[in-house]
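User: These chains co-purify. Model them together.
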Amino acid sequence: MSKVRVLVGTRKGAFVLTSDGKREKWDINGPHFAGWEMYHLKGSPADPNRLYASQTSGWFGQIIQRSDDGGKTWHQPGTPPGEQVAPGGMPKGESNKFVYDTSAETGKPLTTHQFYDGKQHPWEFKRVWHLEPSLTDPDTVYAGVEDAAIFRSTDGGKNWKELPGLRGHGTGPKWQPGAGGMCLHTIILDPSNPQRIFIAISAAGAFRTDDGGKTWKPINRGLRSQYIPDPTAEVGHCVHHIAMNPSRPGVLFMQKHWDVMRSDDAGDSWREVSGNLPTDFGFVIDVHAHEPETIYVVPIKSDSEHYVHEGKLGVYRSRTGGNEWEALTKGLPQSDCYVNVLRDAMAVDSLDKCGIYFGTTGGQVYASADAGDSWSPIVRDLPAVLSVEVQTLA
Amino acid sequence: MTKVIRVVLPHHLRTLANVRGEVELTVEGPVTQRSVLDALEAGYPMLRGTIRDHVTQQRRPFLRFFACQEDLSHEPPDAPLPDAVASGKEPFIVIGAIAGG
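Assistant: Joint model of the two components:
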């Protein structure tokens, strides 16, 4: 029988939630890395027991963790369990080094971006926001980092190299941090074209490579943002998240700072599909596993008030690829609720019916085993949830 | 001359290094912040980058170095540490800034 494994990153540790295919009874395992900010955990599609996790701290910096047994045990890549290489029997850690590429050979990547005050500011590595394992190779994984850049490891997270063509694209001086920092938070690998990757940055916008990460181009035509001097500029847009159904990789859905957007040409152009949403500000967006025109968002009241609309937590579903939205509230709090749902905190499983999962800044992780028609909390009192990913296991 | 130095790490770094209590390090030559941290990272490589930046080797801004009731955070990295640290009588303390507790 199928199983699902939900990987939850929180402000104070990671949790692994497991259930059978009914998705009614859950085992809660954690906290892993107690007290650390766990920005993101994700499993390899090529080897579901291979998990990667971003463990980070304002005090101690960035740590990459890896599990090869589905989250039971973890180690820093380069430190296989049982291997003792240093005096005293300590494992050897070497996975945490993220150094921007400044070499002349790779295109002289830009060295400054716009800061909050409009002045130019040097790139400074802060943390890994998102880890995206390769679709085919468990040892290849991409990392989206703050200050915005994309790195790749091809040895299971042991060593990381920047793909400098993104920062070298030429628009870097116009990129600027959003409220959460200048982060590269979305990485989508095209299952039909291994050379094509989509990424998104707050606040620069969306970019695409068609040559495996060597060169990148901004794909923001159609976006309109009043918070930049030219609302339709090539870059500078605060894209919060992008989602794709793997069966239709040319169609992308975007939750922008304000506005829900859609592209039918792999990002070359976008049109707004906010329709009848009560507010089109928000962070998460995701697509049903089997119905590529069914999409989900969680409207947030505004960019000044980062909590749900009217004190009611509601997931909104469109079965028409946008514009026409219905509120899904069964099982969700409908009064006195003031949580947020952050950009990487929604995921879908691939069971039938499709399961939808999201976590809140109030520490609840909600699940729907019926494509959003009804919801129940898996767990209610975790630390603030930063990310939710789900694995569907045979 | 070989000396045994005692180092106190903050909770999260003890967890990361899988140690309890103080760490004892063997340091050859002069006992300085740099030589102590070099020995620490050699023995516990998973701590590389968590106390000093990977590239610049500068102390991470939210960490401080204390010893013998003094704040040594802003001392030059190659300045000798107090004799009491070099003799193992007092520990070299790596501590997180309280900010954000």
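The helical segments of chain B are 11-17, 33-43, 83-86.
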